[in-house]
Amino acid sequence: MLMRTDPFRELDRLAQQLMGPGTWSKPSAMPMDAYREGDEYVVAFDLPGVTADAIDIDVERNMLTVKAERRPVAKADNVQIELSERPLGVFSRQIVLADTLDTEHIKADYDAGVLTLRIPIAERAKPRKISIGVGSGHKEISG
Fold first, then answer.
1. What pTM, to 2 d.p., does this model score?
2. Domain SHSP, which positions (predicted)?
3. Degrees (nearest 5) of the Cα angle 54, 24, 85?
Protein backbone atom coordinates (compact mmCIF):
# COMPACT_ATOMS: atom_id res chain seq x y z
CA MET A 1 0.00 0.00 0.00
CA LEU A 2 1.23 3.51 -0.82
CA MET A 3 1.38 6.26 1.78
CA ARG A 4 1.01 9.95 0.99
CA THR A 5 2.97 12.55 2.92
CA ASP A 6 1.81 15.76 1.20
CA PRO A 7 -1.31 17.11 2.98
CA PHE A 8 -2.26 19.33 0.01
CA ARG A 9 -2.21 16.48 -2.49
CA GLU A 10 -5.45 15.13 -1.05
CA LEU A 11 -7.05 18.57 -1.42
CA ASP A 12 -5.87 18.77 -5.05
CA ARG A 13 -7.25 15.29 -5.73
CA LEU A 14 -10.60 16.21 -4.20
CA ALA A 15 -10.83 19.40 -6.27
CA GLN A 16 -10.04 17.40 -9.42
CA GLN A 17 -12.77 14.88 -8.60
CA LEU A 18 -15.32 17.64 -8.03
CA MET A 19 -14.49 19.29 -11.36
CA GLY A 20 -14.39 15.92 -13.07
CA PRO A 21 -12.16 14.84 -15.91
CA GLY A 22 -11.93 16.94 -19.03
CA THR A 23 -14.41 16.15 -21.81
CA TRP A 24 -14.45 17.23 -25.46
CA SER A 25 -17.04 19.90 -24.62
CA LYS A 26 -15.25 21.05 -21.43
CA PRO A 27 -11.55 20.13 -21.57
CA SER A 28 -9.05 20.68 -18.75
CA ALA A 29 -6.10 23.04 -19.22
CA MET A 30 -2.58 21.74 -19.81
CA PRO A 31 0.57 23.44 -18.50
CA MET A 32 2.83 25.13 -21.04
CA ASP A 33 5.93 27.29 -21.46
CA ALA A 34 6.44 29.81 -24.28
CA TYR A 35 9.65 31.61 -25.18
CA ARG A 36 11.57 33.09 -28.10
CA GLU A 37 14.67 31.26 -29.30
CA GLY A 38 16.50 33.04 -32.12
CA ASP A 39 14.15 33.50 -35.09
CA GLU A 40 11.33 31.35 -33.76
CA TYR A 41 8.88 31.07 -30.91
CA VAL A 42 8.84 27.83 -28.96
CA VAL A 43 5.78 26.58 -27.10
CA ALA A 44 6.12 23.43 -24.95
CA PHE A 45 3.12 21.57 -23.50
CA ASP A 46 3.32 18.94 -20.74
CA LEU A 47 1.33 15.88 -21.82
CA PRO A 48 2.74 12.91 -19.88
CA GLY A 49 1.06 9.60 -20.58
CA VAL A 50 -0.55 10.83 -23.81
CA THR A 51 0.22 8.96 -27.03
CA ALA A 52 1.17 10.99 -30.10
CA ASP A 53 -1.92 9.80 -31.99
CA ALA A 54 -4.16 11.27 -29.23
CA ILE A 55 -2.86 14.82 -29.89
CA ASP A 56 -4.61 17.19 -32.30
CA ILE A 57 -3.02 20.49 -33.41
CA ASP A 58 -5.00 23.02 -35.47
CA VAL A 59 -4.31 26.54 -36.69
CA GLU A 60 -7.13 28.71 -37.97
CA ARG A 61 -6.10 32.24 -38.86
CA ASN A 62 -4.12 33.27 -35.76
CA MET A 63 -5.68 30.79 -33.30
CA LEU A 64 -3.54 27.78 -32.37
CA THR A 65 -5.48 24.96 -30.68
CA VAL A 66 -3.85 21.92 -29.07
CA LYS A 67 -6.11 19.12 -27.81
CA ALA A 68 -5.00 15.86 -26.26
CA GLU A 69 -6.69 12.93 -24.59
CA ARG A 70 -5.21 10.75 -21.88
CA ARG A 71 -7.03 7.45 -22.00
CA PRO A 72 -7.16 4.88 -19.20
CA VAL A 73 -4.72 2.01 -19.45
CA ALA A 74 -6.40 -1.36 -19.90
CA LYS A 75 -6.26 -3.32 -16.65
CA ALA A 76 -6.67 -7.03 -16.05
CA ASP A 77 -9.72 -8.30 -14.13
CA ASN A 78 -7.70 -9.20 -11.05
CA VAL A 79 -6.18 -5.67 -10.62
CA GLN A 80 -7.28 -3.65 -7.62
CA ILE A 81 -6.53 0.08 -7.80
CA GLU A 82 -4.92 1.35 -4.59
CA LEU A 83 -4.34 4.94 -5.68
CA SER A 84 -5.34 6.87 -8.80
CA GLU A 85 -4.15 10.49 -9.00
CA ARG A 86 -3.21 10.88 -12.66
CA PRO A 87 -5.99 12.78 -14.43
CA LEU A 88 -7.68 11.21 -17.44
CA GLY A 89 -9.80 12.87 -20.08
CA VAL A 90 -9.36 15.69 -22.57
CA PHE A 91 -6.88 18.55 -22.24
CA SER A 92 -6.88 21.65 -24.42
CA ARG A 93 -5.13 24.98 -24.82
CA GLN A 94 -5.76 27.83 -27.26
CA ILE A 95 -3.22 30.53 -28.04
CA VAL A 96 -3.69 33.63 -30.16
CA LEU A 97 -0.62 33.99 -32.35
CA ALA A 98 0.73 37.35 -33.47
CA ASP A 99 0.53 38.32 -37.15
CA THR A 100 4.33 38.36 -37.17
CA LEU A 101 4.54 34.56 -36.89
CA ASP A 102 4.65 32.23 -39.89
CA THR A 103 1.83 29.76 -39.18
CA GLU A 104 2.46 27.94 -42.47
CA HIS A 105 5.75 26.48 -41.22
CA ILE A 106 5.02 25.31 -37.66
CA LYS A 107 7.04 22.24 -36.61
CA ALA A 108 5.79 19.86 -33.91
CA ASP A 109 7.85 17.29 -31.97
CA TYR A 110 6.69 14.99 -29.18
CA ASP A 111 9.26 13.45 -26.87
CA ALA A 112 9.11 12.18 -23.28
CA GLY A 113 5.61 13.54 -22.71
CA VAL A 114 6.43 17.05 -23.94
CA LEU A 115 4.88 18.47 -27.12
CA THR A 116 7.14 21.20 -28.55
CA LEU A 117 5.93 23.55 -31.27
CA ARG A 118 8.42 25.76 -33.11
CA ILE A 119 6.83 28.71 -34.88
CA PRO A 120 9.16 30.76 -37.12
CA ILE A 121 9.00 34.53 -37.16
CA ALA A 122 7.75 35.79 -40.54
CA GLU A 123 10.35 37.39 -42.80
CA ARG A 124 8.35 40.63 -42.89
CA ALA A 125 8.63 40.92 -39.10
CA LYS A 126 12.41 40.45 -38.86
CA PRO A 127 14.55 43.55 -38.39
CA ARG A 128 16.12 44.79 -41.59
CA LYS A 129 18.29 47.68 -42.72
CA ILE A 130 16.85 50.37 -44.93
CA SER A 131 19.33 51.85 -47.37
CA ILE A 132 19.31 55.57 -47.90
CA GLY A 133 19.48 56.85 -51.45
CA VAL A 134 21.49 59.97 -52.12
CA GLY A 135 19.89 62.32 -54.61
CA SER A 136 21.96 63.90 -57.41
CA GLY A 137 20.58 67.34 -56.88
CA HIS A 138 18.15 69.41 -54.94
CA LYS A 139 14.83 70.32 -56.45
CA GLU A 140 13.09 73.49 -55.51
CA ILE A 141 9.49 74.27 -56.00
CA SER A 142 8.78 77.88 -56.82
CA GLY A 143 5.44 79.49 -56.99
1. 0.68
2. 23-135
3. 70
